[in-house]
Every structure is written in C-alpha cells, then in structure tokens.
Write a structure and sequence with these properties.
This protein is of the alpha/beta class. Helices cover about 20% and strands about 30% of the residues. The chain contains 4 helices and 10 strands; from the N terminus they run E-H-E-H-E-E-E-H-E-E-E-H-E-E. The chain has helices spanning about 15-25, 40-50, 95-100, 130-135, and strands spanning about 1-10, 30-35, 50-55, 70-75, 75-80, 105-110, 115-120, 125, 140-150, 155-165. The strands form 2 sheets. A 5-stranded mixed beta sheet has the order 3-2-1-9-10. A 5-stranded mixed beta sheet has the order 4-5-6-8-7, with helices on one face. Helix 3 (about 95-100) links the parallel strand 5 and strand 6. Helix 1 packs parallel to helix 2. The N and C termini lie far apart (about 35 Å).
Amino acid sequence: VMMRLAIVSDTHDNWPLVVDAIKAEGNIDYLIFLGDYVSDGRQMEKALQIPTFLVRGNCDSYEDGPGELVVELGGWRLLLCHGHFYSVKETLEELYVHGVEEQVDFVLFGHTHQAYYREGKVVMINPGSVSKFNLMLNDASWGLLTLSKEKNEKNFIKYEKKTCQML
C-alpha cells in the first residue's frame, strides 16, 4: 500500500497549472509546498482538498508559516525547507549535513528552480519550479514521491520528475 506526495516549489503565481497537472495524476495523498509563494500553496490546498505541509521561501517574508519543518509520515521522516538559509545555490553540502543531523530520510528543498534528485544517506529532492521563466525554458516541473505507507526493510520508494507545459 502506497502513499503519494506531490512536491511543489517556486510557483511564483503559476499555481493553477500545477493543480491541473496534479489532478491529472490522480490519487495524491499529500501536498508539500516548499516556498515562494506560500499563498499559492494555500490556494493549491483548497483546490486539491488534501493534507498540505507548507514552508516559507525567500519571497514569503510577509506570509505566516514555518521556515522549516520535519514531517513524519508512516515512519518516514522528511525535512522541508526552501533552501535559501543553506546557500543551496552555491552548495548542497550544508543542507545535506543538516538532513543527516535531523535523522531524516528525505530533504526536500526548492529555491534554485532546478530539479534535482540524489540518493545517499539522505535523499535530496528539489522538484524544480513552474515559474514563467522555467516555462519559457520548457523546464517547468514538480515532483511525485511514492512511498510505502509504513517504512520497513523492503522500502518502496519511487521519485518522478513531472513536467508542466503552458496550455
């Protein structure tokens, strides 16, 4: 039995596009929004009607919400942050070390607008962005993470980068 998490970051007002893409994907259990525009994340939560975890990004200074969260789902531990406090545009080392210290399975971050996936002691995931600039470059994306409902020895994990195109 699986749980499916839609991971979204850096929508910069283009949230309806991602909502359509997520709805087309069918059964999503959770929405994870990693900042830059938290208000978009809240609109998406209303539109999708699924449990949502949000963190603020560098463009969200006037918004409410945590800058970082550790979420536990079925024994899986996920660190959610935007990434700007960890200089992710220069290096991922600081954020990776933080994830190891927090004893998480996944570090989910945004900020760079570049999709990224790396396995290691901690799995690092950046879903990319659906900003207008990313759409122009034909590089707009979000992430779909599929996990076993209960973390166990025979862990089932699948990560897919999902693309969005302008309609």
